[in-house]
Write a structure and sequence with these properties.
Belongs to the major facilitator superfamily. Proton-dependent oligopeptide transporter (POT/PTR) (TC 2.A.17) family. Keywords: Membrane, Transmembrane, Transmembrane helix. It is a single chain. By secondary structure, the chain is an alpha+beta fold. The protein is built from 22 helices and 16 strands. A hairpin with a 5-residue loop joins strand 10 and strand 11. The longest helix has 34 residues. The protein is globular. It starts with a helix and ends in a 6-residue tail after the last strand.
Length: 801
C-alpha cells in the first residue's frame, strides 16, 4: 500500500490543483516550467504593450490633445489610478467565480480592444496634421466625439490591464506545487523571473516605443503595443492544456459579512480565555478541503471571536449550522488578517504617490532639460530606463551583499523581512524626491540620481509589498493580495492628482505662474518635490509604528485528502496504538514515584517522567515550571530562559530536551521515536544521552512486560519482552495526552522542503506540521506557547542546514 501511495503522490500534485477538466492535476503533464515560461513571456509582452501607452501618455496629452502640464499630469495620475483600481475587480472575479485562467484571458481580450481602438483613432484623426506631436509642431483641435473616443480607448486599456495584472503572477505561481521539494524551489525562482520579465518589457517600451512616440510616430507606437498584446494572448491560450488551476473559493465579501453579523448578534457573549472552544470545521468535507490552509487563532480583534462561539441558536432544524450566526475560526481569522493589513497598506499609498511622478512630472521635467547625448536626443520617457537598470542591478546587490551583511550584523542571524524592506523603500523614496528637487533647483540638467533612487526604492517597497501581501492573505484570496499592492498604487495616483490640484490652486493665486506652469523654467518644481519628500518622511514615521505593532498570520499545514487519510486496518491500528500508549502512562508514573528515591525532591510534570521511562531523552536541568521562551540563537544553539544550550532542541509545551539531529538532512520519522527496532532485535536509543540513573525496573501493563535497563553512558537500551508480543515503536507525541496541535520544525538557516514520509508520520500523530527557518520557528513557538496552546517545536541550530 505504501508503494501505491508513493506512486499516487508522484503522479498527482499535492497542493489541491486541478486540470482544466476539474480532475486532480497530473504532475508530469501539467504546470511546471513549460507553463511558467509561457506566462513569463506573456507578462513581458503585455508589459511592453501597456507601458507603450502609459510611459508617454503625459506627452500625448500635452502635444496632441493640447493640455497644459498640470492638467496632463493630473489626468495621467487619474488614469494610472484607475488601472490599478480595476485590479480589485479582476481579483474579485478570479478568487470568487471565474478562476485565474478565465479572468486573465477575458481581460487580455479587453486590453487588445482598447489598444486597437487607440491605434485607429490616433492614425485617422488624433495625430493630425501629419508630422505633429513631436514637440515642435502642435496638433490641431479635436472634436468632442474624437476626444471621447480617445478617453474610451485608454480606459479600456486600463480595464484590461488592471483586471489581468493581479492574476497573472498568482496564476504563474499556481503552476508549481509548493508541497513538492523540487517545484517549491522553482516557485520561488518564478517570482524573480517574473519581475525580470516585467522590467524587460518596461525597458523595451521606454526605449524603442518611447523613441518612436517622442518623434511623433504615435500611431506606429500604439500599433506596436497592440501587436505585442495580441502575441501575448496567443501564447497564453497555447498553454491551456498544460495549466494547473485552483478552484475558486466563493465570494469572500459574503464571508466577511457573515463574520461581522454573527459577532454583532453575540455581542453579549463572553469570549473564552485564550480562544479555547471556538468552532472550527473538520478538514474532510469542509470548505477548506480543496487544499487551502486553515489559520491559527490570534488574540487581536477579540470581538470577532464571538462569531465562532457556539450557542443553542446557531443550528436550524434540517439545515445545520447557520453561517450568519456561527462562523469557523478560520473565517474569523481571515477577516482579522485583512484588518491587520490595512494600516500597513495605507502607509504604502504615499510611496505610490512618489512613484507615479516617474510617469508624469519626471517626464515633463526631462522634456525641459537638455537631453542630448553625443549628438543623440534622448526621449524624456526613455530616461526611466535608468530606473529599470538600477532596479535590476540592485536585485543582485541586495541578494549578494546587503542581505548577507545584515544577516551577519543582526543577533537573530536573518536578513531584512518584507516589512523592513518596505520601510527601507520609503526611506529611499524620500531621497529620490530630495534628489529631484536638487536637480530642478540647480538646473544641473541631470535627472539620473532621482531615477536611480526610485529604482532602489522599488526593489524594497514594490517587491516586498507583493511578497508581503501574497504571503499574509488567506490561500483563497491570493489574487486579492496582489490587488492590494496594485490598489495602493491606484490610490497613490489619485492622491497625486489631488495634491497637484491643491498645489496648482494655491501656487497660482495672485496671478503667479505657479509651481508647475506650462513652461517649467518659470515655475518652482523643486518646491513640489520637497513637499513630497516631507510627506514621505512623515509617512515613514507612521509606518515604523504600524510595522512594529503588526502580527504575522499563522497558517496551519496545508490539508490534502487525496493520499493521507488512514482507512480500514490502518485507522484501527493507529487508534489502538494511541490508546495503549496513553493508558500506560499512569502506571508508569506511579512506578517511577515509588522506586526512585527523592534525593532532591522536585515536583516534575508527568511528561518528564513518561520520557524518563524509556531512557532516551536528556532532560535539561533548571527548566522553569511556568513557560519557555527562546531569547536568542546563533549558529551552534539557542538561549532559552536565560540559559544557553548547544545543539538541537525539542520543546513540548513548557518542557525542553536535547535532540539528536545535527542538520536538516538527519531529520527523519525515526528522529521522533522513543525506541526503534533494528534487524538484530535490539532497540537503540534515538536521542543523544540516557538519564543519570542506574536501576532496573519492571513495569507490567496488559500484555506488555518491559525490562528497562537504564545506563548513564550506554549507547543502547535493551528491552526484554515475550516473543509473541510485538513492541510498539512509540512516537514521543503518542505518549502525550492531549497530543500537541502543531509541530513547528526549525530547518536551520533556511526553510527547506519536508520529505513526504516525515509529513505522513507527523500527520499520523494527529498534529499539523509547519516547517520554517529556525528563527521564525522559535518566534512562532514563543507566541503560541504564550497563548497557552499545546505545541511542540523541533529546532536545529541556525548554522546547520
Amino acid at each position: 500500500m505504501e508503494k501505491a501511495e508513493k506512486l499516487c503522490q508522484d503522479e498527482h500534485t499535492l497542493d489541491g490543483t486541478v486540470d482544466r477538466h476539474g480532475r486532480p492535476a497530473i504532475r508530469a503533464s501539467s504546470g511546471s516550467w513549460f507553463a511558467g515560461i509561457l506566462l513569463l513571456v506573456n507578462q513581458g509582452l503585455c508589459t511592453l504593450a501597456f507601458y507603450g501607452v502609459g510611459v508617454n501618455l503625459v506627452l500625448f496629452l500635452t502635444r496632441v490633445i493640447g493640455q497644459d502640464n498640470s492638467s496632463a499630469a493630473n489626468d495621467v495620475s487619474k488614469w494610472t489610478g484607475t488601472v490599478y483600481l480595476f485590479s480589485l475587480f479582476g481579483a474579485f472575479l478570479s478568487d470568487s467565480y471565474w478562476g485565474r485562467y478565465k479572468t486573465c484571458a477575458i481581460f487580455q481580450a479587453i486590453f487588445i480592444v482598447g489598444l486597437v481602438s487607440l491605434s485607429l483613432s490616433s492614425y485617422f484623426f488624433l495625430v493630425k496634421p501629419d508630422g505633429c506631436g513631436d514637440g515642435s509642431a502642435p496638433c490641431g483641435p479635436h472634436s468632442t466625439v474624437e476626444t471621447i473616443l480617445f478617453y474610451l480607448s485608454i480606459y479600456l486599456v486600463a480595464l484590461g490591464n488592471g483586471g489581468y495584472q493581479p492574476n497573472v503572477a498568482t496564476f504563474g505561481a499556481d503552476q508549481f506545487d509548493e508541497e513538492h521539494p523540487v517545484e517549491s524551489h522553482s516557485k520561488v525562482a518564478f517570482f524573480s523571473y517574473f519581475y525580470l520579465a516585467l522590467n524587460l518589457g518596461m525597458l523595451g517600451s521606454n526605449t524603442i516605443l518611447g523613441y518612436l512616440e517622442n518623434e511623433g510616430m504615435w500611431a506606429l507606437g500604439f500599433w506596436a503595443s497592440a501587436g505585442s498584446a495580441i502575441a501575448a494572448l496567443v501564447l497564453f491560450l497555447v498553454g491551456r492544456p498544460r495549466y494547473r488551476h485552483f478552484v475558486p473559493k466563493g465570494n469572500p465579501w459574503k464571508m466577511f459579512c457573515q463574520v461581522i453579523i454573527a459577532a454583532l448578534r453575540k455581542w453579549r457573549v463572553e469570549v473564552p480565555l485564550g480562544g479555547g472552544g471556538l468552532y472550527e470545521e473538520e478538514e474532510c468535507g469542509s470548505e477548506y478541503d480543496n487544499g487551502a490552509r486553515k489559520i491559527l487563532h490570534s488574540d487581536g480583534f477579540k470581538f470577532l471571536d464571538k462569531a465562532a462561539i457556539e450557542t443553542s441558536t446557531d443550528y436550524a432544524a434540517g439545515i445545520g449550522r447557520d453561517p450568519w450566526r456561527l462562523c469557523t475560526v478560520t473565517q474569523v481569522e481571515e477577516v482579522k488578517t485583512i484588518g491587520r493589513l490595512i494600516p500597513i497598506w495605507l502607509c504604502t499609498i504615499i510611496f505610490s504617490l512618489v512613484y507615479t511622478q516617474m510617469t508624469s512630472i519626471f517626464i515633463e521635467q526631462g522634456a525641459a532639460m537638455d537631453n542630448r547625448l553625443a549628438g543623440f536626443r534622448v526621449p524624456p520617457a526613455s530616461m526611466s530606463a535608468f530606473e529599470i537598470v538600477s532596479a535590476a542591478a540592485f536585485i543582485l546587490i541586495h541578494r549578494r551583499a546587503v542581505d548577507p551583511a545584515m544577516a551577519s550584523l543582526r543577533k537573530s542571524g536573518g536578513g531584512l523581512t518584507e516589512i523592513e524592506r518596505m520601510g527601507v523603500g520609503l526611506a529611499v523614496a524620500v531621497m529620490s524626491m530630495v534628489a529631484a528637487g536638487v536637480v530642478e533647483h540647480f538646473r544641473m540638467m541631470d535627472a539620473v540620481p532621482q531615477y536611480v533612487f526610485i529604482g532602489v526604492s522599488e526593489i524594497y517597497m514594490l517587491v516586498g509589498q507583493l511578497e508581503f501581501f501574497n504571503g499574509q492573505v488567506p490561500d483563497g484570496l491570493r489574487s486579492f493580495g496582489s490587488a492590494l499592492s496594485m490598489t495602493s498604487i491606484s490610490l497613490g495616483n489619485y492622491a497625486s492628482s489631488l495634491i497637484l490640484t491643491i498645489v496648482t490652486q494655491i501656487s497660482t493665486s495672485g496671478g503667479d505662474p505657479g509651481w508647475i506652469p506650462r513652461n517649467l523654467n518659470r515655475g518652482h518644481l523643486d518646491n513640489f518635490f520637497y513637499l513630497l519628500a516631507i510627506l514621505t518622511a512623515a509617512d515613514l514615521m507612521v509606518y515604523i509604528v504600524c510595522a512594529k505593532a503588526y502580527k504575522y498570520t499563522r497558517f496551519e499545514e496545508r490539508s490534502n485528502h487525496f493520499f493521507t487519510t488512514p482507512t480500514g486496518d490502518e485507522l484501527t491500528q493507529e487508534m489502538a496504538a494511541r490508546r495503549r500508549a496513553v493508558a500506560a502512562l499512569p502506571t508508569i508514573v506511579r512506578a517511577l514515584k515509588k522506586e526512585v528515591p527523592p534525593r532532591h525532591h522536585t515536583a516534575l510534570p508527568s511528561l518528564r517522567r513518561a520520557f524518563s521511562l524509556y531512557d532516551q531523552i536528556n532532560l535539561i536541568d533548571k527548566v522553569p515550571d511556568d513557560q519557555l521562551r527562546f531569547q536568542e540563537f546563533d549558529d551552534t544553539g539557542f538561549k532559552v530562559n536565560g540559559v544557553k544550550y548547544e545543539g538541537s532542541l525539542l520543546c513540548v509545551g513548557n518542557l525542553i530536551t536535547s535532540w539528536a539531529p545535527k542538520k536538516f538532512a538527519d531529520i527523519t520519522a525515526e528522529s521522533f521515536l522513543v525506541v526503534r527496532y533494528d534487524q538484530k532485535r535490539s532497540y537503540e536509543r534515538v536521542f543523544n544521552y540516557c538519564i543519570n540513573q542506574r536501576t532496573l525496573r519492571k513495569i507490567v501493563h496488559g500484555n506488555f512486560l518491559l525490562a528497562v535497563s537504564i545506563l548513564s553512558s550506554s549507547s543502547k537500551c535493551s528491552f526484554i519482552m515475550p516473543p509473541d508480543v510485538a513492541l510498539l515503536s512509540l512516537s514521543i507525541f503518542k505518549t502525550l495526552h492531549p497530543v500537541p496541535e502543531i509541530l513547528i520544525l526549525g530547518c536551520g538557516r533556511y526553510t527547506q522542503p519536508v520529505k513526504p514520509e516525515l509529513r505522513d508520520f507527523v500527520r499520523s500523530t494527529g498534529m499539523k506540521l509547519e516547517a520554517v527557518d529556525s528563527r521564525n520557528a522559535a518566534s512562532t513557538y514563543n507566541i503560541l506557547n504564550e497563548e497557552g496552546r499545546i505545541v511542540a517545536a523541533a529546532l536545529i541550530p541556525y548554522g546547520d542546514y
